[in-house]
Amino acid sequence: MPQDVNGVRAYRSPRRAQQAAATRAAVLAAARDLFLSEGYAGTTVAAVAARAQVAVDTVYAAVGRKPALLREVVEAAISGTDHAVPPAQRDYVRRIRAAGSAREKIALYGNAVAQIQDRLGPVYLALREAATTDDDCRVLWETISARRAANMRDLVADLRVTGELRADLTDDEMADIVWSMNGPEYWALLVHGRGWTTRRFGTWLADAWTRSLVG
Predict the structure, then answer these.
(1) Which of 141, 143, 166, 175 would staple 131 via disulfide (CB 3.0–4.6 Å)?
(2) What does the alpha-carbon distance between residue 154 and residue 148 come to, in Å, rounded to a whole number?
(3) Running along the chain, 215 residues long, what does each successive block of 10 average in pLDDT?
(4) Among residues 42, 48, 50, which one has the least CA distance to residue 29?
(5) For residue 197, what are the contacts with CB-CB under 8 A and spacing of at least 6?
(6) What is the DSSP secondary-structure string of 9-26?
(7) In the beta sheet, which residues pair with residue 9?
(8) Domains of the chain (ranges plus CATH)?
(9) Distance between CA 155 and CA 127 in Å, rounded?
(10) In this structure, what DSSP letter does residue 188 have?
(11) What is the pTM of this model?
(12) Paired strand residues for 3
C-alpha cells in the first residue's frame, strides 16, 4: 500500500480513482467541444465546467487553467486516450518498428496519421488559430510542431536501417518531407476541402511517401 511523506500508509480507493478519471474525461470532452465551436478566446473555464456539469474548481483540480485544458485536449487527440502517451509506447509505433521493409513501415504510418488526424486535425487547427493571439498557445503550438519534427527524424532513422531509402536525400530532408505532409493543414485540404475519406487519405500518404523516400 502507498505511503505518504510521513511514512503513514495512504488508502487509495479504486472507486475514487475511477470517478476522478471519469470527471477528467468529461472535462476534456467539454473543453474540446467548446474550443471547436467557440474558439479558444471564446471559451471560458466556467463554460467548460457547465458543459461537463462540474464546479469550476473541479476543472482546475482535474486539468488546470485554460491553457492546460487546450494542451491536454491536444495530447488526448494525439494519443487517443485521456492522457499523453510517449511515442515509443504507442501501438502503431511499435508495429512500425517491428515491420521488416520500408514500404510496410510507411504504409503503417500513413494509415496511423489518417486515423489520428480525424480526431486531432480540428483541435490542432484551433490551436494554430489561438497561437496567433495567445502566448501560451503559441508556445504550445511551437513545442508540438518541434516535437513532430523530432519524431520524424526518428521515423526516418528507422526507415534508413532497411537499406531501401534514396541516397540523394539526407535524413533531415526526408524528415521534413514527412513532417510537411503529416500536419493538419494537408489533412484539412484533402479530407475536409475535397471530401476524401480517411482510408483514401491514409493510402495516398503512404504512396506519396513511398515514391518520395524509397529508392
Answers:
(1) 141
(2) 10
(3) 55 76 90 89 93 94 90 82 71 91 96 89 85 89 89 95 95 95 90 93 96 94
(4) 48
(5) 191
(6) BPP--HHHHHHHHHHHHH
(7) 3
(8) 11-66 (1.10.10), 86-213 (1.10.357)
(9) 25
(10) I
(11) 0.78
(12) 9
At 7, list the grid cell: 511514512
Task: Answer for the pair 119, 36: CB distance below 8 angstroms, yes or no.
Answer: no
Determine the Cα–Cα distance for residues 37 and 173; give it in Å rounded to an integer.
Answer: 37
> Rounded CA gap, 109 and 156, in Å?
11
Q: Counting Cβ atoms within 10 Å, is residue 158 exposed (0-12), middle (13-18) or buried (19+)?
A: middle
User: In angstroms, what is the C-alpha Rg of the chain?
Assistant: 20
- The answer for residues whose C-beta is within 8 angstroms of residue 38's C-beta and 6 or more apart is 47
d(CA 74, CA 140): 10
Query: What percent of the chain is predicted at pLDDT more than 70?
Result: 92
59 and 20 Cβ atoms separated by less than 8 Å: no
Return d(Cα 11, Cα 28) in angstroms, integer. 27
42's torsion region: left (phi>0), alpha (psi -120 to 50) or beta?
A: alpha
C-alpha grid cell, residue 9: 500508509
Residue 91: what pLDDT?
86
- CA–CA distances in Å: residue 113 to residues 16, 51, 147, 208: 35, 30, 15, 13
